[in-house]
Amino acid sequence: MTDRAADPGDPRPLIGEPLALDLLNTRWSGTPVNDLLTGRDGYRIWLSSAGLADRCGEDGSGLPELREAREALAAAVLDLDEGREPGAAALAGLDAVLRHGRIRRTAGSGGPVDRVEVDGPQWLAAWLAVDDFLVLLGQGAHRIKRCAHEACILHFFDTSQNGRRRWCSMAVCGNRAKAARHYGKARG
């Protein structure tokens, strides 16, 4: 993965999670739900924030594939949110995206070299995001969490030592919850 710096035009409240969750977080709370991937501009912004702008065409040709990957990730994460392993339907969605690519390992002068090959350039970002999800699962499915704030739909990878992170952002959702508790006690 390339270095990642958020695109200055990225409107999302949570940026910089691992690639799979960053893609999932292209939808966030609002009425209606905000969606960064409604068109070519949002697609370009996401590629830039994800550090993929130099590897993926910004012409929007990969947008349908990226949405397909996001739906597959959403199904798998929904199962995790409900305390289950990803079910057969969720795994089939992930596999449908993964079928469009592979990792080719070759011998290099400095050791093994892994190169991602995809059926077409439009599949690269989608394939990388789903592959990243498999890496996250390998590191611990229990660390893939939905924000504990009832109005928030964002997900994060809990890297805290004790695995007790609850909020996508303590500054936003954590403070809202604390303020609501305080207000409730003051009124009660």
Strand neighbour order, sheet with most strands: 1-2
Query: Could you tell me the strand content as a percent range?
Result: 5-15%
Q: Tell me about the biggest sheet? A: 2 strands, antiparallel
The CATH fourth-level homologous superfamily: Jann2411-like domain
- Beta strand count: 6
- The helical percent reads 40-55%
Described by its quaternary structure, the protein is single chain
Category from helices, strands and their pairing: alpha+beta
Domains, number? 1
Explain what you see.
The protein is of the alpha+beta class and 188 residues long. It has a single domain (19-145, 153-162), classed as Jann2411-like domain (Jann2411-like fold), CATH 1.10.3300. Helix content is 43%, strand content 14%. The chain is built from six helices and six strands. It has a two-stranded antiparallel ribbon with strand order 1-2. Strands 3-4 form a two-stranded antiparallel sheet. A two-stranded antiparallel ribbon has the order 5-6. Helix 3 (63-81) packs antiparallel against helix 4. The longest helix has 19 residues, at 63-81.
